[in-house]
Amino acid sequence: MSKTLFEKIWDSHIVVDENGRSLLYVDRHLIHEVTSPQAFDGLRLNARKVRRPDLTFATMDHNVPTSDRSLPILDQTSSVQIKTLEKNCKEFGITLFDIHSPNQGIVHVIGPELGITLPGTTIVCGDSHTSTHGAFGSLAFGIGTSDVEHVLATQCIMMEKPKTFEIKIQGKRKNPHAVTAKDIILSIIRKIGTAGGTGTIIEYRGDTISELTMEQRMTICNMSIEAGARAGLIAPDEKTFQYLRGRKYTSDNYDELVNDWRENLKTDSGAKFDKSFTLSVENIAPQVSWGTNPAMTSDVTESVPFPDEYGKGNPEEVKGVTKALQYMDLKPGTPIVDIVIDRIFIGSCTNARLEDLMEAAKVVKGKKVSSKVRAMVVPGSQLVKKNAEEMGLDKIFKDAGFEWRESGCSMCLGMNPDILAAGERCASTSNRNFEGRQGTGGRTHLVSPVMAAAAAINGHFVDVRELDLK
Amino acid sequence: MESFKKIKSIVTPLDKVNVDTDQIVPKQFLKLIQRTGFGQFLFYDWRYEKDGILRKDFILNDPTYKNSRILLARDNFGCGSSREHAVWALDDFGFKVIISTSFADIFYNNCFKNGILPIRVSDEILQKLFSTKSEIEIDLEDQTIMVGNTHVSFDIEPHWKKILLEGLDDIAMTLQHESQITKYERSHKI
Fold first, then answer.
1. Which residue on chain A is closest to B30 by alpha carbon?
2. Closest CA to A153 of A55, A54, A56, A49
């Protein structure tokens, strides 16, 4: 019978089928400091061990400072959480990339970078952006802390089988440097809504997908959760196999694995999806969010919408948009390009890999950050930072007036000292524009790295299609 | 985990769509390493003024709902971050049932893992519940919501129903499959 890629991975990981649910084997378990302490406590309380410490990898990313790492961590509660992870990894024999490791970074950046992420595998992590790893054709999704404990103890997860959702992305972008993977995924979320993918696993397909680099595919899969889907998948191809070759944890029989993946890891022709959506990318514009969820997004050439028009008579929607605009302090009808920005954040598991920084640097090179703007670059990992520095990108950003920081989640969620003050407005390459996400009272506009870089220079949004980005 | 059978209470109507887990528990409170004591942080930015004073216009601060154990929510409740702290906060605050038209997937799972019952109902039923001022009763065994003299039934996966009713430890349940897990591991190499 014809099967989708998701169904193949699902079926090959079933340990037991029981009452319409499956116990699935977990190939890789990634953990970090924020959602794991209570899970380890649970293990101790019940005298349980970590079943497969060799398949479990840890790093600290959510609350680590991005300033000088030789200094002590001033925030005592953060420090306790970080030390707790160190202690737990030591006690249970888990590999940890700590704050001083050359492999430290955002968990979803380092997984692929180290070859921990592999096609056809199941990957879980106590973080919703685990969907990122789906770019490699792995079934990867976020779980809560109770499930972290369950996976630590059993290396399995009990689940009801999700539905399948095909998203076809087709056509050629006129200017792929200005209209990026971020603009593609924001366009999709804008159309299907923040709950459009609930209960499903998305497979992104189509000719545009095969043209994207691995890092761009990661940006797309990363934000699947913003459309409500727990995971997003892309079938692996030669680019995938090439990207992972020779990485730190790639196994010795890699070529053998590649042959198998090439043969099997794709949706069979004739396989049926439960749901389908198509996006043509020829005419999409750079996207800017104006509201308090990622679906509240417009083209850079548009204006802040009027709630009645936007809500199309749905009272809940009209109420939601009115409240969002109030929080964002935006007047309906204001052109997006007239929105003045205080802060710029180039970072996060969505957009802080090497290519993101290279693209942003093209906009910044030889220019100065607007005198009214504070701008920062937070590389996704120590390896991204090192590679960028070898290319001289740090110098380009610093010369322009950007802060060049150490790696971590940073201002994507503001658990460390990198936060917005109340009322500050930020152009951010991250994934969530929820109220208070980047700091209580802070206002977030989600954009691509080139859009953020251009806003830094100009002090307001600009249509990057007007710049020479080649 | 405590077992769950019946709950009778007035409902707290939270009239907002797409409530994300960042609102349920803001990130500054995720640094704690325990599971307990998160109730004080529930909906923190909506519940308190900047100076820490309770905001009069927020529903959870209305004394009418002080002893409510059932939260009424709107579409896509619990979207965004996977943080289980959101469920710990709702639980610690006193909510044992959340009723909405839809929930985000990870949040929905996290509820059951902590003995909270999330119930999906139709738009029509939700509207009716939003206008109810009197107590309602939830019976998990019968899968019913009793509103006045009307019974409304709801669906729940049998697996979760059993876990809630019996207060089971799902890790212990999985470990009963130890031999199958070991067998799988032997044949599956990556």
1. A34
2. A49
Chain A residue with the nearest C-alpha to that of B76: A195
DSSP type of residue A430: S
CA atoms within 13 A on the CB side of B46: 21
Calculate the CA dihedral of residues B43, B47, B51, B56 and round it to 10 degrees.
Answer: 170
Q: Does any CB of chain B come closer than 8 Å to the CB of residue A190? A: no
pLDDT along chain A (470 residues), means of 10: 97 93 98 98 97 98 94 92 98 98 98 98 98 98 98 97 98 97 98 98 98 98 98 98 97 94 97 98 98 98 97 90 97 98 98 98 98 98 98 98 98 95 98 97 98 98 94
Q: Which residues 354-373 of A have a C-beta within 8 angstroms of B?
A: none
DSSP labels, A65-88: -SS-TTSPP--HHHHHHHHHHHHH
**CA distances from residue A115 to A5, A119, A218 in whole angstroms, order as listed:** 21, 10, 14
> How many CB atoms within 10 Å of residue B139?
16
Mapping DSSP to helix (H, G, I), strand (E, B) and coil, where does residue A392 land? Answer: coil
The structure tokens listed for B133 are 């001022």
Q: Residue B34 carries which DSSP code? A: S
Within 8 A of A160 by CB-CB distance, chain B residues are 157, 159
Which residues does A170 contact at the CB level (< 8 Å), separation at least 6?
A206, A207, A208, A278, A279, A280, A281
